[in-house]
Amino acid sequence: MSLNAQPTTQAEDEIDLGELLAFLWSKKWFILIITSIAVVAALLVVKRLPNIYQAKASVMVQGQKSQNPLAGMIPELTGGSNDQMDTIIKVIKSQQFANELFYLIDVTQFNLTDPNWTPTALQNGISVNTTKKSNILEVKFEHASPALTKKVVDLVVDNLTGFQQRMLKPTSQENSAWLNKKIDEITREIETYENQMAEMREQHGIIDLAGYAKQLKTELEQLIGEDRKLTKEKTKLNSLLEQIELAKQTPSLISGNHNLAASAVLKKLVDTLAIQKAELAQIQLRYLHKHPKHQSIIKRIQETESQLKVAVKNLEMRYISRLEEIQDLILENSASQRKVNRELEETIYLGAEQTKLQKLIEKDMQLLESIAKKKTEMELIQDMDHTKSIIIIDPASLPEHPIKPKKKLIIVMAGMLGMIIAIAISLVLRIFTDSHVRHRQTIISNGYKVLGELPKLRISRKKKHLPILTGAGNQFEIYKESIHAIRTRFSLFPELSHTKILAISSLMPNEGKSTTCLHLAKSFGELERVVIIDADLRAPSIAETLQQPLGRPGLTNLLAQTHSFKECKFYDERLGADVITCGRKPRNPLLFFSHKRFAKLLEVLQTKYDRIILECPPILSVSDALLISKYVDGINLVTDVTQNTPAKLNHDLQLLKHSGTKVNGVILNRIKSESSKRYYGVPSVPQGNLKRA
């Protein structure tokens, strides 16, 4: 069965809500403490925050048109438009307006000793809101002093109109003088451009440059068309002259050439010559060449040929004369084209210059019109009456209750934020400290058992590709105790207790199965008769780890019957178990595992030993382990949690499930030592005590 089937479920996409809630409940005191700290901190901060009051007034902005007829002529001062509303809002929020209001406030009256009380602070405290589809503004001011808020709003409303007029009038007088000067400059510039255009027309004697250019283009097109006709006729005459040259040598070709045959004289002479030659042929049949009739017809033929040559010569001279005439016409036409081209280019250039001057004049005229309009507005502003454009609808009142800070809301939000942070910290710590839990859930969700969890060994050694057999320190003691726990599980699980053959494999290479096999053999060897077999014929490692010669007889020699069982097995004191190494590496390991001798060997070994530990190749890399699984009750997988994500582990287990491979369980390897210490807190028991037990 193929191992490439896609998994039907993804374990990492499934969230056990009950387990998550149980975990959060276990962290309730931590969450409660963080939440309480956040609430207390919020209370301390809120107590130090000053109360902020707000005063507001509603005003209606009306246009100046109803108050002063002159103002209605100025678009910037007519009311009811969005532009005017935006302008008034910008004025209220301007720094200059804030500076003017700042010096109108009596500092001693409101006890403003705060050094932060500046025009900028006043400007930042003022806000303006608009009402949709109306010209009503709501002016607000916020400050810790309720009396000051009312005072500022009143000052804004009372001084807005006067401020606008004071800002407009001083500049209007200065601008009016500048506008008069600019009008004179532009007027002189327009006169200069118009004089240049007039000089251009007088110099070239052309009034309508565009019409003249169009006339020249038409004339040029006619000359080009005439040139094409003359060139075509010239080509035809050259061809006729070539045909005439051929006709001079062979007069009979004249009748077949429709161009030459078109001449009536030539056609008549050619027909006469043909009749005479036919008559000659008849006479030659009856008379000899000395006969008078024969001589007479010969003489007439010669006369006709002579006439034909003269006619061809005359036609040739007529064609030559016409050809010379056409060449003269072509030269004359070319000269005319050059002349018209020069005139056209000069006219186009003059037209471009004239258009450029015309655009400059139009631009200046528009600018002159705009400046004249502005000048009129400045004059109207100078004559405008001092009328108010602001109508107060709701005057400012003294605020009684602060608008902020919202103490209850801040405390509630701080408590919620503290709770969220505490939950987030708990979940993050769980992800980083107990990542193997997701691997465990993935294994269980696929219907397999978790046989044990082994911590990661950090032991420096020269040959890092070899399994770890010996070590020292608390970390190594925890690892050995974890191996003892796995041995205990094999003894306690009813479905595994009768299993004598432990086939240890992994999903991929370098996941720690060799180290696991050696330590399981050592652990079981403390209580039982054990033999460990290196069945990974492609990458054996047990012989080198146990410092045995690489060529030592082993499993392959035993199956090939080149050595006896006693020669192939040996006892290792460090393991306390018999060992059968790989032996000589074969070219095709599948032949050895598919042979009946391998099954027979396992049957015999079960009678001699209490436990047989097979180190198998990675089950997804090669098919050796699949063959071995036919002879055992199931495969025991070792998986590296640092190398396999829960998603990848789920995918690989799904492949094994679809292939029909029986798996007894999975051993999680290289788990962080912190979680291992908490799980395996009991110190290891000396081997001697176990043997005595």
From TrEMBL:
<feature type="coiled-coil region">
    <location>
        <begin position="176"/>
        <end position="318"/>
    </location>
</feature>
<dbReference type="GO" id="GO:0004713">
    <property type="term" value="F:protein tyrosine kinase activity"/>
</dbReference>
<dbReference type="Pfam" id="PF02706">
    <property type="entry name" value="Wzz"/>
</dbReference>
<keyword id="KW-1133">Transmembrane helix</keyword>
<dbReference type="GO" id="GO:0005886">
    <property type="term" value="C:plasma membrane"/>
</dbReference>
<feature type="transmembrane region" description="Helical">
    <location>
        <begin position="29"/>
        <end position="46"/>
    </location>
</feature>
<dbReference type="InterPro" id="IPR003856">
    <property type="entry name" value="LPS_length_determ_N"/>
</dbReference>
<feature type="domain" description="Polysaccharide chain length determinant N-terminal">
    <location>
        <begin position="13"/>
        <end position="102"/>
    </location>
</feature>
<dbReference type="InterPro" id="IPR032807">
    <property type="entry name" value="GNVR"/>
</dbReference>
<keyword id="KW-0175">Coiled coil</keyword>
<feature type="transmembrane region" description="Helical">
    <location>
        <begin position="409"/>
        <end position="432"/>
    </location>
</feature>
<keyword id="KW-0067">ATP-binding</keyword>
<protein>
    <submittedName>
        <fullName>Uncharacterized protein</fullName>
    </submittedName>
</protein>
<keyword id="KW-0812">Transmembrane</keyword>
<dbReference type="InterPro" id="IPR050445">
    <property type="entry name" value="Bact_polysacc_biosynth/exp"/>
</dbReference>
<dbReference type="GO" id="GO:0005524">
    <property type="term" value="F:ATP binding"/>
</dbReference>
<feature type="domain" description="Tyrosine-protein kinase G-rich">
    <location>
        <begin position="370"/>
        <end position="429"/>
    </location>
</feature>
<dbReference type="InterPro" id="IPR027417">
    <property type="entry name" value="P-loop_NTPase"/>
</dbReference>
<keyword id="KW-0472">Membrane</keyword>
<keyword id="KW-1003">Cell membrane</keyword>
<keyword id="KW-0547">Nucleotide-binding</keyword>
<dbReference type="Pfam" id="PF13807">
    <property type="entry name" value="GNVR"/>
</dbReference>
<dbReference type="InterPro" id="IPR005702">
    <property type="entry name" value="Wzc-like_C"/>
</dbReference>
